[in-house]
Amino acid sequence: IKRFKGEYIHSWEYKSPEKFQGKRIVVVGIGNSGVDLAIDLSRVASQVFLSTRTGSWIWNRVWDNGLPMDVALFSRFNSILENLMPTFLTNRLAENKLNARFNHDMYGLQPKHRFLSHQATFGDDLPNHIITGRVVMKPNIREFSETSVTFEDGTEEDIDLVMFATGYTFSFPFLENDPTILDSRYTMFKFVFPPLLEKPTLAFIGILQPVGATIPTSEIQSRWAARIFK
Questions:
Q1: pLDDT digits (tens, 9 = 90+) for 74-99
Q2: Residue 185 has what pLDDT?
């Protein structure tokens, strides 16, 4: 990347698309941030390329009959069914359902993993942007030149900007040297309370990745933590 003379930033630096007007951009990573960025940037950019090593199963937030996906799917009944069904059958049913909306292989999104093996990605608008050419799917990047990117399929594209949506690492430097609070794996009971503390006086909110939205889950964590503190 240091050979590249254009601009390259991480997704956390991104605020709005206006200053990227007319640029040729490659977004690296197909998590939720990468997909959202590619869609947002494609409205102003000359061309957006979305690079992925592994592909991804793309969920829709709007499910059958216009219901929110989590309302339609996350019920006690469906939870019982999921626990009763073997993994291979759950994978097959989910993959067939998602491919019925659009063929992942045809759109350059076919994952190398089964549905339950990796976190899926939300991207209601992604197929529309791919089919209109505003977002072009690409495999992993092989190398950079001063002005271009070469992908593993041998294609080369001139690029003005590289946007890395490659995830985050989290740390707690104010706690790391105190083994009475956190162990080396950052173990937390239900992702909230460090179990090594003598009393539950510290809670972490939002350090998790749910299938649905983070904010409602964080709200429930906050209510629970407040009750414990009380």
A1: 899 999 998 999 999 999 999 999 99
A2: 82
φ and ψ at residue 3, rounded to 5 degrees: -75, -25
Determine the Cα angle at 119 with ends 31 and 71, to 5°: 100
> What is the DSSP code (8-state) at residue 193?
B
pLDDT surpasses 80 at 223: yes
For the chain, helix, strand, coil in percent to 5 are: 30, 20, 50
Q: Please, are residues 203 and 228 in contact by the beta-carbon 8 Å criterion?
A: yes
Please tell me the pTM assigned to this model: 0.84
Q: Which DSSP symbol is given to 179?
A: T
Q: At residue 43, does pLDDT exceed 90? A: yes
> Coil, strand, or helix at residue 195?
coil
Give ∠ CA 24-25-28 in degrees, rounded to 5.
160
Q: Side chain identity at 202, as an amino acid letter?
A: L
